[in-house]
Write a structure and sequence with these properties.
Number of helices: 3
Shape: globular
Largest sheet: 9 strands, mixed
Distance between the termini: 24 Å
Order of helices and strands: EHEHEHEEEEEEEE
Helix content: 10-25%
Mean pLDDT: 94
Length: about 170
């Protein structure tokens, strides 16, 4: 499984290197591309990869990948609207998320309920505004119904009413 990891700059930051190392330890082959690369470069790379990973460090990338037929995993809240999750987002501070759906491949190894994912209170993202009709909620902000870990299957209805070209996941951190 090949992942196209979008870098903020010409070389990976320590945070990007840490994420790439985790992905590689899980058995993925990680290829990189700089966020400022041309659309043609992105198109070429998307053909030979199975998914795209967008970290919170990368800005202005959503337009280059929105029509991709491969999977997209994003930490970057500025991509939420363009990629169709919701028209807006907000944040909350906590150290856990509430797993609400264990039937999805991402969460099958989890039990429902609060899961501590950071050792200290951190800022997490949640969807707001108009939320995609086709969204699958995997986790919420604890003690609320605010969606924080979500997925859109290929062909799902996005927040703007059109359909996704490929699978998408919005992570709660970033």
């Amino acid at each position: 499984y090949n992942i196209l990891y979008v870098l903020e700059g010409a070389s990976a930051t320590s945070a990007e290197t840490a994420r790439i190392t985790v992905l590689q330890s899980l058995g993925y082959t990680v290829n990189t591309i700089v966020a400022s690369a041309s659309q043609d470069s992105f198109n070429t790379q998307m053909v030979s990869n199975d998914a795209i990973y967008v970290s919170a460090l990368v800005d202005g990338i959503a337009g280059k990948i929105v029509n991709s037929g491969i999977g997209i995993v994003t930490e970057q809240v500025d991509t939420y609207s363009t990629l169709g999750f919701s028209t807006s987002y907000s944040t909350y501070s906590q150290n856990s998320i509430d797993i609400t759906n264990t039937s999805h491949k991402i969460t099958t190894a989890q039990s429902t309920g609060d899961v501590i994912i950071t050792s200290s209170t951190q800022g997490f993202n949640k969807l707001s505004g108009t939320i995609a009709a086709g969204i699958t909620t995997l986790a919420e902000q604890p003690s609320t119904s605010s969606k924080t870990l979500v997925a859109l299957a290929k062909g799902s209805v996005m927040a703007n009413g059109s359909n996704t070209a490929g699978r998408r996941v919005a992570l709660p951190w970033g």
